[in-house]
Amino acid sequence: MSVAMRIRRMVEFRRVLVILVRRDLRVRYARSWLGYVWTLIDPLAMSLVYAFVFGVIYGVKANGNASINARTDGIDIVLFVVSGLLAWNWFNMCINETARALSAERLLVRSTNIPREMWVVRVVLSKGIEHLMSMPIYGAFILYFLLRGEVHVNWELVYIIPALVIQLILCIGMGLVMAPVTAMVDDFIRVVRIVLRMGFYLTPVVYSANYLGTKLPWAMHLQQLNPLTGIIDMYRCGITSHYTPDYHAWIFSILVSLAWLFFGMWVFRKLEPAILKEI
Q1: Where is the ABC transmembrane type-2 domain (predicted)?
Q2: Which residues contact 212 (CB under 8 A, 6 or more apart)?
Q3: CA dihedral in degrees (5, 9, 12, 17; nearest 10)?
Q4: Are 7 and 121 in contact (CB under 8 A)?
């Protein structure tokens, strides 16, 4: 079946996709007292921990010192970490959850006529909704520092919207690779988890890519190939006053994300017959 036909079938089953996403969200919060609040607590707690480590212990805080300001593009360390951590959390959850998307639903995958790519897409969408539900944390911190006069918001804040779209494409593409490969090779998920731990520090979540460029220019150029570099830069450019947007990273984010999407659809199509035998 061609890629176009597969996409057409997924469009035809879009109502089923909505039902699956709703089911995921209901199951996640069904037995939780706090429910949606956990979506806020998790990134908030981690942001405060990283802010304490880098802001208090290591003294990375916007305070008029040009060298220190450069490390966070002139943004307070708390706001800087929140913006990067929210984007990273969505990516991290998608990769971990899509790896189990087929094996966790093996009975439905084999017995229903639903396009099997949708089991991956529904994970990305449900995690994307949780990501949107956590975005008020980012807005609250922006408002707090705005009222204190420590941040200047500009119209470029709207670039968060294309950042969300690009990240959605990236997560679906990588998920379409993760799901079939993990269903066939259990050890693959362990390798991916190690790579994710390393990837967190190789992605400008708790430090500025621009600051890395002042120390190791070659490393910054290499880091621009990481699609999350451009995506996180889009999250921050509306509150950054010290540097212009990294348009090279943006272009790479778009190209790499689209490449992952087409590669993921190709891999999924090739491995689908073997997956059905394996699960």
Answers
A1: 34-271
A2: 204, 219, 220, 223
A3: -140
A4: no
Give the SS3 label for residue 64.
Answer: coil
Distance of CA 63 to the CA centre of its chain: 30
All structural domains of the chain with their residue ranges: 3-278
Instruction: Answer yes or no: are the C-beta atoms of 55 and 77 closer than 8 Å.
Output: yes
Token pair for residue 194? 């190690």
Q: What distance lies between CA 8 and its chain's CA centroid?
A: 26
Q: How far apart, in Å, are the Cα atoms of 185 and each of 33, 49, 123, 181?
A: 37, 35, 20, 6
How far is 268 from 157, CA to CA, in rounded Å? Answer: 35
pLDDT digit string, tens, across residues 150-195:
788 888 889 999 999 999 999 999 999 999 999 888 888 889 999 9
Chain-centroid distance, C-alpha 21 = 18
Helix axes 77-98 and 187-202, enclosed angle (nearest 10)? 160
* Angstrom distances, CA of residue 132 to CA of 75, 81, 138, 160: 22, 17, 10, 11
Nearest C-alpha neighbor of 254 from the set 185, 162, 137, 174: 162
| Residue 220 binned pLDDT confidence (cut-offs 50, 70, 90) | confident
* Total number of residues shown for the chain: 279
- Structure token pair of residue 62: 């916007």
Rounded Cα–Cα distance for residues 127 and 133 (Å)? 10
